[in-house]
Amino acid sequence: MKARIGLGWLLLVSVLALAIGPARADTPYTTWTPGPGGRLFMTQDAYVPWAEVPLAIAGAEDLYQTPEGVLYLADTGNGRIVRLSSSLEIAAEYGKGTLAKPTGVFVDETGTLYVADARLNQIFIFAPDGTLLKTLGRPTEPLFGKSREFLPRKLVVDKRKNLYVISEGSVQGVVQLNPDGHFIGNFGANIARMSLKMLLQRLLLTREQLEQLVKNEAASPSNLAIDQQSMLYTVTAGTLPKESIRKFTVSGRNIFPAIHGSTSFRDIHVSPEGLVVAVDGGGSIFEYDQHGTLLFRFTAKDYGEQRLGTLVNPTGIAQHGDFIYVLDKDKNALVVYQATAFAKVVHKAVSLYMEGFYREAKPYFEEVLNYNGSFIMAYQGLADAYFKEGNYPAALQAYRYAEDRNGYSQAFWELRNTILQRYLGPFILFLVVWSVAQGFFKRLERRYRWLDPLRQRLRALSRYPLVDDFLFMLRFIKQPADSFYYIKRDLRGSLPFALLIYAWVLTVRVLSLYVMSFPFNRYASPAQIPVVNEVVLLAVLLGLWNAANYLVSTISDGEGRVRDVVIGTAYSLFPYALFMLPIALISNVLTLNEVFLVTFSQQVVLAWMALMLVIMVKEVHNYSFSETLRNVLTTLFTMAILTLTAYILYLLFGQVFDFVQTIWQEIGLRG
Amino acid sequence: MAKFTYLMLIVALLVTGWPLLPARAAVPAASLPDGYEKVAENATFDLYLNRETLAFKVLDRRSGYLWSSNLDEVTREDKLNKSWTAFARSGISLEVMDAKTNTRRVSITNAPHTTTIQLLEQGFAAQVTFDEPGITVGVRVLLEPEGVRVEVPFNEIRESDKYRLAQLHLYPFFGATKENETPGYMLLPDGCGTLIAFAAQTKAQNMFYGRYYGADWGMRGQIPYNPETRPAHPLSAPVYGVVHGAGRHAFLAILEQGSAFAELQAHPAGVITKFNFIYNLFIYNESYYQPTNRSGAGVTIIQPQTNAFDIVQHYRFLTGAEADYVGLARAYQRYLVDAGVLRPQAEPRGVMPLRLEFLGAEREKVLFWNRAIPMTTLEQVRAILAALPAQQVEVTLYGWQPDGAAAQPPLHLKVERALGSEGDLRSLAQTLQAQGGTLALYLDPQAGLVGERGYARSEVAEAITRATPRGYNRGSEQIYFNLKAVQRRLETLLEDAEAAGATLALDGVGYRLYSDFHPTTRLNREEALRAYQDLLGQHAPLALYRPNAYLWGATRAYYDMPLSDSGYLYTTATVPFLPIVLSGYIPYYGPALNFSSNLEEDLLRHADYGAYPAFFLTQEATAKMLKTRSNWIYTSSFDQWQDEVTRAYTWLARLLGPVQGYPMVARTQPHPGVTVTRYANGMQIVVNYTTQAVTVAGTTVPPRDAVLVQTP
Question: Region B388-409: what's the mean pLDDT?
Fold first, then answer.
C-alpha cells in the first residue's frame, strides 16, 4: 500500500513533467539567502511556480502530507477532510456529517486520521476507511487546570501515539495527551519577555493601575510540526522574528538558535529529507535546514496581478521531494512550486553535511558557490570539510567568510599549535640566551656607561613641551591625584597635548576595531564597521562629559576651570590611549579559549579609566568624596538631559522647516 | 421549353461551379443583418457600415469570413446589462470626467447624440457629438490593401467646460467571440508573447489591462519599488492579435500613432461578460493625486491640459495557413519592413555572436573616503576574450566611468584609472573590430544617480505633481532627465566613443517613456516618443536594452530580450512572438545566463527562440563587492564561469550559427515538450524539452537537447 502510493507520486512527477513541459514564465518574486553580516542577499530562484491546482474546497485551514507524499486537506468550510490523489484531485473524503469545522489534520503511518475541530472543540480519530474510532474532549485531569479552556486547532502525533495539540490562546504551550486522551503535560511554552518599561511599571505603579494594563503573557504557539525523529517544531505568530520557530527535544528544550523568521507564521512542515519549510501571512515562504539556518526566502504575495505562483491567503504548507505545496484559503487552490537545479544542489550539499559527510559535501558546496558567491552556508560546509581534512589555512579563510567565530578560533588553535610545537624549543632557548646577555650587558653598561650619550639625547628631547607632556602622562600611572594638582597649577600638561590625546583616543577606538582579531570582534569584516558612527559617538560623548562636568561643577563650588576639566579628562583617558591598541594586537595570537584574557584586560582598562575620571573630578574641583560622587552622577544626568534637549530642538526645527516648505508649495500650486 | 433549358443550364453551372466559390469556413460566417450598407470595397475586402451605431463589418473575400466590430443583437442568454449592451453595440464609447473627477461611461446607443457621416472613397468619416456632456469625437474608417485603418484625429475632438474626455474605447468588440463557441485565442505582446485561449470559464478575476511601454513616470512621479517582487513585463510593441480558429481566420491590430497613451484591455469570457474581447483604450485625461504637504495630504485633480495625440490603428486580416501566432508575427514583421523600421541586414556570416557584459569598477567606502575597486581591467577583458572560443563578441563595459558603476557617468569619455587608459580602450576596440565584434560602453542617458554628483537640477524632468520622476535600476535609485539633457549626454559621449573606435549600449531610453511637465521642457508622452525616435534616428543604429517597438528602427542589437511571459494565471501558452518578428532583421540576445537558476532549461529556450547567449562577467570574485550597490550581480567571476561559458557557446553556436541572419518562417509542436522551428534557409531546429528521446522527421533528439536538421 505504502509502496504503491510512493510509486504513484513518482509517476505523477514524471507524467506531469512531460505533459506540462518547460516552465514558461519568470517568477513573480525574487529569492533571498543569508549572506555576510546577517543580511539577506538576492540569489537565483530556488523554487519556480509549477502549477495552481483549483480544488472543490472552501476555506481550507490545514494541509498535511505523509512521508510517502499523500496530501490531506482540512476542508473547513465543507466540514470534511479530503485526501488527494497523485494527480492532485480529490480522491476520498472523511468525516462528513461528523465534523463541524475541522482546522487541523494529521495522518499517522497506519492511515489513521486525527482531526481537530474548532467548533465542537474536540479531537476526532478516524480509521483509514472513514469510521469514527474515538472522540477526545476537554481533559478532565486536575493538572490541566480548572478554568482553562480546551480549544484544539492543530495537532500532531508522535511515534508512540501521543497527541500534541495546539489549543488556541494557550499560553502554557502545547497540550500533550496520551493515546487515550489523558492530559500528560504542557510542552514547549514560549517565554514571556520583560522589558525595561515593564520593570519600571512594576516598580512604580500601584496594583490597581497594573491590573488595567495588558498582562505580560507569552504568545501562544500557532502551529506545529513533527519530524521523523519525533522532534517537535512550533511556530508562533506575534513574537520576535528571531524566536518565531522553535525546535524541541523530547524534554522540551528549544535547540534552535536565533533565526531569520517572521512575525506572522501560519504553518510549518518538515520534509522526510529533513528540510523545514514555513509560510507566513504575508505570503513569504522560508526554507531552513535542520539546525535553523535559513537557506532561502521568497515572498510570493499576490498584489492583484494574478500571476502564477502568487498567494493571497496561505494557510498550509508541505514539502515532498522537489515540490512545495501551499494551500491558499482564499483561492481555494493548491499552489505548487518546483525546486530548480540550483536548489537541488543546495539540498544535496546540506543533507550530506547534516549527516556529517563533510568531505562528500565539499564538491556540492563548491558548486553552490559557483551559483552564488555569498552563500554563507556553503562557506560553513567547506570550512568544516577543510577542518576535517586537516587543511587549517583554508579552513581559517572559509570560517572567516562563513562568520563562524568558534570554528575560526578552533582552526587558529590548530595552526598556532603546530607553529608553537615547531618553534617553542628554539624560542625558549632564545629567551634564556637573551636574558643572560641582557644581564651581562647591564653589568658592563653600569661600568662603562656606553648608553650615556643616548640618555643625554633623551633628556634633551624632554625639553620639548609635547614630549614633556607625554612623559607627564606616564606619571599618572604612579601618582594620579598629585599629577592633577600640577595641571591645576599650570605647571605641567598643555591644551594642545590634551587635544592630541582626544584625537588619539578616537583613532584608537577605530583602529582597535580594525585590528582586533576576528573571533573577538563584533564585526565580521572591516567593511562592516560603521566608522563615522563610532567616531562621532565617541567625540560627542567626550564633548558632552566635558561640558556637563564643567557646568555642574560651577554651580556646586568646584574650583576647576574649563581648561582644567578639558586637560584633566584628556589625561584620565590614558589607560585607554596606552593599552587598548596593544590588547587588540595581542588578540591576534589568541583563541577563544583565552577569551578571558582579552575581555578581562579590556574591562580593567575601562575600569581604570573610570577611576581616573572620578579622581580627576575630585582633585580638579577639590571636592570631598561624597561631593565627588554627587558631582559625577549629576554630570551623567546632565549629559542625558543635554541629549534630550538637542533631540527636541531637532524635532521642533524640523516641524518649522516642514511648515514653511508646505506654505511655499501651496502658494506655488494655487497661485 | 427555352425557359426550362435556361433553368437547367443555370443549375448545371451552379453545380459545377459550386466548388469554385470561396471555401466556406467551418466557422459559420454571420449573414449581414439589417442596418448595414456597403460603403467601400477594394481588391480583397468589402466594408459595411451601420450608420446608427457606427459599427462596421469587413468581408474578407478570400475566405468569405465576415469580421464584425460590434455585437448586433444581444439576447437574454448573453446576460449583458443595459450599460454593457450599449457598450457592445456601439462603435465607440467614452468615459467622461466632470470637474470633481467623477467618471461615467456613455456609448452611442444609450446616450442622446448627433452623428454626421461623410462617405469617403475608401470608407467613411463620422463626427459624433454626445449632447449631454457636450463632447465631440471624430472617427474615420478606411479600407487599405491589407485591411482596415481606423483614425481618430485630435483636431476633431471637442470638449465642453463642464466635462472632459477621460478615455475613448475604440471598437471594443471588434472580433469578439462568445465563450468557446469559436475556437481560437488572443495574442498579447506580454514579455515575448502570450496567448489567452477562448474558453467558457476563466481563472481570471479581473481583465488584463496594461499601458503600452509601462506606466508614465511623468504622471506618477515615483513608483514604489519592492525588491522582493519581480514586476511583470511591460508591453513593448503596440500590437495584439486574435485568431478565430488556427489555420482559418485571424487579425492583427497595430497602433501606428497614439500608442503612448493607449492601454491594452483583454477580457477573457467569464470576467464581467460572457464574451472574449480585446481592444485598445485611449487616455485623454487622467485625474491624479497632488500632495500638498510632506505628510502626504493632498487633493485629486484633473490634469490641466488634454493629451494631444492622433490615433491611427490598422487591422490586418489573415486567412488560411497564416492564421496563427506565427502568421501574426510575420504579418507584423511585414508591416515593419514596409514602414522602413526593419531593414535587410548584411549577408549572413554563419557565425553566432556572443554577448559579454563586464563590470569595470565599483566603489566602496573605506573609513571616510571612497575607493574604486577594479573588478575587471581592460587588460583582463582582453585576456578573457582570448581565452574564449567565440569569434564574434559584443562586449559591453559597465562601470567604465571614474569611480565605477556607482558614480554618474561623465559627459565626456573618461575611463577609471584603475582599469586602464583611453589608449587601452582604443586598442581593445580595434582588436574586437578586427574579429567582427564591437566594444560598447554602457550608458543610461535618461538616468541620474540619486546622491551622486555629476548632473544639475536644471536637467531633471518634472512630473505633473511637481515631484521629480524617480525609479530604480541595477541597484541604484535614479532620477530622470528632460529631453535636452538626454540628447546632450547621449551625443557627447557617442562622439567620444566613436572617436575611440567604440560605440554605446543604451539602457533605459529603450523602454522608459515618460512625459515631462516642466514649464520650459514640456513634452507629452507621444511627443516624447517621436522625439526619441528622431534623436536616435540621427545616428547609426546602437545596441539597446529591451527597446520598445518605436525604437526598433534605431536598434543595431536587442539586449536582454525577455524569453518568457509574466506568468498570468489566465494565459494558456507562451509563444515567441517577439523573436519571430525580429528574427533575421535585428539580432537579439537573451538575459545574462549567470542569473539563471536552471542553465540547461534556459539554453534550450535560447535554441528554441533563436536568441543568442549573454553573460555578465568580472575577473574578481563577487565577494569583493558585497558592500557596493552592484551586489545584485551575485555571481560573475570568470574563473568560475569560464567552462560554463565555453560549453554554452559551443553548444548553441552549432545550432544557431548556420541559421544566423535568417528569419523564422514556421513553428510547430509535434508532441508536448518538443518544438520544431523552420528558418528561411530551409534548416530546422528541433528542441526536446522532455526527459525522453524523441524522433521527429527522421531525426532522433536526445532528452533535454536540441538538434539542427539541414533539409536537403
Answer: 91
